[in-house]
Amino acid sequence: MKEIFFKEVNAFLSSLIAYIVLSVFLIGVGLLVWVFPETSVLNYGYADLETLFSFGPYVLLFLIPAITMRLFAEERKAGTMELLFTRPLTDWQIILGKYFSSLFLLLLALLPTLLYYYSVYELGNPVGNIDTAGFAGSYLGLFLLGAVFAAIGVFASSLTENQIVAFLVALFLCFLLYTGFASLAAIDVWGTGAYIIQQLGIVYHYDALSRGLIDSRNLVYFLSVILLMLSFTKLVLSSRKW
Question: Which of 78, 174, 193, 214 has the highest CB neighbour count under 10 A?
């Protein structure tokens, strides 16, 4: 699994698209947090990073599929899938090696944004006037959200040899799972069932973590979705029809 992990990380960081994707993410989030008047934290009058955690998921919707689209699709297109599975590794070791490489790249994208916390911490009046617990919960939620998107992206990449198709499938599934259930629950036909439908979507649990409420039920939800998507990937790869 370690070999797969380092192989994927090195392959991504050796490509131009890696730096384009990471730059677009950091520039896009930076503009939203600091520059655009409608969303700039400097215009809020409050020491918080609500902009980062409100708009960050939508940026990750595009970033994560761009990272994961090549993981299995490239192997299929290059005809190296059979070679990959002749290695003394189980299916799960291969899947997890690729999945953890995408998580590492997610962390690589998120780490520079910790500077935003430090900046807002220093800009507070008095200095340090920021809800650190809420920030920690929001950051955990953003990482778990990215982890779910990565699992979806790995699954989408296992379905096709075309990276663009893998990107679009992952983008659609991520968007559907993030906002689809909340939008469905908003339709005034479900009665008391609307709350249950809302709980099936990511945004409900993400919002809970963003309030600093680190509840085990929210953590279990994220981990369950990740496991489900990786299990779907295992089923696809187990067919060995490439």
Answer: 174
